[in-house]
Amino acid sequence: MPDIDIPPFLTMRFTALPSSTRLPRLFGLFASMAAAALLFTAQPVVAQAAPPITYSKDGVSFDHPPGWKVADDVVAQDETRLRSIDIEGPDESIVTFMFSPFLAGQDIQKFAATAARNREDAARSNTAQQLRMGAVTESPIAREVAGKESKGVSQRFVVSLLGQDLPHEARFFKAALAGTTVIVMTQVASEHASAVEPGFVMTLGSLRYSPGKR
Fold this sequence. Notes:
Layout: E1 14-16, E2 22-24, E3 53-57, E4 60-64, E5 69-75, E6 83-88, E7 94-99, H1 108-125, E8 132-133, E9 137-145, E10 148-161, E11 164-177, E12 180-189, H2 193-205, E13 208-209
Antiparallel strand pairs: 1-2, 3-4, 4-13, 5-6, 6-7, 7-12, 8-10, 9-10, 10-11, 11-12
């Protein structure tokens, strides 16, 4: 199995802090197959005021709530053909799907741990804003991914910037699909977690993959 140089699809984004201060969002910079990545227990009822939006392209389909949007859908131009899809929700929440057969051997706990190290490295390099990451607390979690229960990793950590602390939650899952493997990552500020959870549940649970379909 070749090493994967996972491109930085999940570059530093921005998360809202109180009083409109903004700080880099915390998805890691993925460097290799041993690099990192961003998910879910019980299935809350998803109540939406309007019908969900269905995204379908090149064999991947899923539903997401109205007002959410697919921000990126890109494929690495190398032998891995690693595909990354970013779905942005309200309050700087995000879901990322990463697809590649070469992810089959990736341990999701190691993947999540590498993501945490990448966040810390990115924070240390951000000297201008004096950004700091607090200690990470990990716990097991399970959510439905592509119609089946998936056991993953939940991370809780605090982002500190200019004297303000903003707790965050990141979740990581892995699922085997027909002919490929997906790693799923979500992130949201803890204060908005309960509001966006139904959207996360909808998007992850409705994921489907059909190889060769266009």
